[in-house]
Design goal:
The structure is a single chain. The protein has one domain: TIM Barrel, CATH 3.20.20.70. The chain is about 35% helix and about 25% strand. The protein has eleven helices and twelve strands. The protein has an eight-stranded parallel β-barrel with strand order 1-4-5-6-7-10-11-12, surrounded by eight helices. Helix 1 packs parallel to helix 3 and helix 7 runs parallel beside helix 8. The chain starts with 5 loop residues before the first strand and ends with a helix.
Length: about 240
């Protein structure tokens, strides 16, 4: 991941289409067309990293948008991080060998923390652990199941196991275009030394600046970009040093 603060477009996929969910709930989605067209469009606008999520995989535990992901990897010569339905070491190492730069583990990391160490041994720095929080609790299985885990405590544990970064999604504000909450991000940044990538609730350029000020290394942006609240270029310029 770049040392400079990065604005990362999200390409969340469900049934072969780009979608954005509200609060992580199925049935709330707005659809934005073909994933490959979206991904190549973001690269054309200056994206240096893409955030891909197989939502079918996240909810059902089985990746169902593999063909679109393969096409994006082939078409886009930028860093790619992928989450959703990656449940085993074999899943992860296969993806890394196929050109994915970082795998994002959520449910698998909670159910089997040692998977983080095993994949990190295969390719150091390649695991981003996704800590998605609802009401201050880490949730898994497409944000449908509580775990009882505190995000900051969990982040410290995964750092010790070799995680290269933490992706923190504030599910309570995800997809609502009503603004971010910086306090949970600040807590995580204080808890670990590895990069924290923030996600959820971004509605304005000021939200992006606030997350940078909170110590995040990057922000994943979905709905605000797709709805034209600002352009990718405007977001990048807003956080230039």
């Amino acid at each position: 991941m770049n040392e400079e603060f990065a604005v990362i477009p999200a390409v969340d996929m469900q049934d072969g289409q780009v979608v954005q969910l509200v609060g992580g709930e199925r049935g709330t989605e707005t659809t934005y067309g073909d994933p490959v067209e979206a991904a190549t469009g973001w690269v054309d606008e200056g994206a240096e990293t893409l955030h891909l999520v197989d939502l079918d995989g996240a909810f059902e535990g089985e990746r169902k948008n593999a063909s679109a992901i393969d096409a994006i990897t082939e078409a886009c010569d930028v860093d790619i991080q992928l989450g959703g339905g990656i449940r085993t070491v074999e899943d992860a190492t296969a993806l890394l060998s196929q050109g994915i730069d970082r795998v994002i583990l959520g449910t698998a990391a909670v159910e089997n923390p040692d998977i983080v160490a095993e994949i990190s041994d295969y390719q150091p720095g390649s695991v981003t652990v996704s800590l998605d929080a609802k009401d201050g609790e880490v949730v898994v299985s497409g944000w449908t199941e509580g775990t009882g885990l505190d995000p900051a405590e969990a982040a410290r544990r995964y750092e010790e196991l070799g995680a290269g970064a933490i992706l923190f999604t504030d599910v309570d504000v995800e997809g609502q275009l009503e603004g971010v909450r910086t306090e949970p991000v600040e807590r995580l940044v204080e808890a670990v030394e590895i990069p924290v990538v923030a996600s959820g609730g971004v509605a304005s350029l000021e939200d992006i600046r606030s997350l940078k000020a909170a110590g995040a290394a990057a922000v994943v942006v979905g709905s605000a970009l797709y709805e034209g609240k600002f352009t990718l270029g405007e977001a990048q310029r807003a956080v230039e040093n």
